Amino acid sequence: MCCITKNTGYVFSSFLNERVIQIPDKQGKIIVLLGPPGAGKGTLAEKLVKRNGFQHLSTGEMIRKSDDKELKDLISKGDLVPDKIMIKLLKEKLGTMDFEKGLILDGFPRTLDQAHKLDSILGKMGVGLSSAVYLNISSDTAKDRLAKRAEEQDREDDKDAETIKQRFKEFREKTVPIIDFYKRSRKLKDIKSGVPAEEVYTRVVKSLGLKAGKDEE
Ligand code: ADP
């Protein structure tokens, strides 16, 4: 008798002598986080890493840490980095990753072209996207959060009103169409997120069928 259990990703085989062989599945869950600036993508990702053992890849962090002045200039104006450059950077980074622990992709994809390319890159690597978590929040609440973040963290793109306006415009025009794309492929988890971070985490793990963890003391 042989069966594949969906949740654990383990393959069990039992034979006449009742021996059970467990072969770990190659792939953990690959999850995309979508949402406007200030929706809480980074905060949620941090909890999923600490409590559920995921790896985390933030494309915004990648760019902030890079030495490329042109890319940093784009960020400081609130513009998206061109798809071609972003996809190349992501592809290189994914090539160095091991998917066994699962992966949170925070901030990618942000355009339909990126979403299509992500499917094909992952497909060529023999893995696939599990879910797209959309942190659904009103722009007023998100803007209030950005104002707080500007005080707490030193992020240039959170300080200037024109930059913030431009980031929301990019989100509305280029990222919102992706929500529909994932809805059609039944991968979308629409999470109401104008609530404390702990509640967002609880809602997300529930929708993903994961066990809620706690921070270690
Ligand atoms: P937030 O979602 O809070 O705005 P991020 O750290 O995710 O912050 O992104 C910061 C900036 O990095 C974006 O405004 C954009 O300029 C750039 N960026 C990040 N991810 C992408 C992406 N997938 N495509 C294009 N630009 C990106």
General description of the model:
The chain is an alpha/beta fold and 217 residues long. Helix content is 48%, strand content 17%. It has eight helices and eight strands; from the N terminus they run ββββαβαααβαβααβα. A five-stranded parallel beta sheet has the order 5-6-4-7-8, sandwiched between helices. A hairpin with a 5-residue loop joins strand 2 and strand 3. Helix 4 runs parallel beside helix 5. It is globular. Mean pLDDT is 88; it is low at 1-25. The structure holds adenosine-5'-diphosphate.
Topology:
Blueprint: E1 2-4, E2 10-14, E3 20-24, E4 30-34, H1 41-52, E5 55-58, H2 59-65, H3 69-77, H4 83-95, E6 103-106, H5 112-124, E7 131-136, H6 139-152, H7 161-184, E8 188-192, H8 197-208
Parallel strand pairs: 4-6, 4-7, 5-6, 7-8
Antiparallel strand pairs: 1-2, 2-3
Helix pairs in contact: 4-5
Question: How is this structure best summarized?
Answer:
The chain has helices at residues 41-52, 59-65, 69-77, 83-95, 112-124, 139-152, 161-184, 197-208; strands at 2-4, 10-14, 20-24, 30-34, 55-58, 103-106, 131-136, 188-192.
Quickly list its features.
about 220 residues; alpha/beta; five-stranded parallel beta sheet; three-stranded antiparallel beta sheet; 8 helices; disordered N terminus
* Global outline: globular
Distance between the termini: 43 Å
Task: Name the bound molecules.
Answer: adenosine-5'-diphosphate
Return Rg in Å: 19 Å
State the helix count.
Answer: 8
Mean pLDDT: 88
Succession of helices and strands = EEEEHEHHHEHEHHEH
Largest sheet, in brief, is: 5 strands, parallel
Major sheet strand order? 5-6-4-7-8
Assembly type: single chain
Structural class by sheet pairing and helices: alpha/beta
List unreliable stretches of 5+ residues.
Answer: 1-25
The helicity comes to: 40-55%
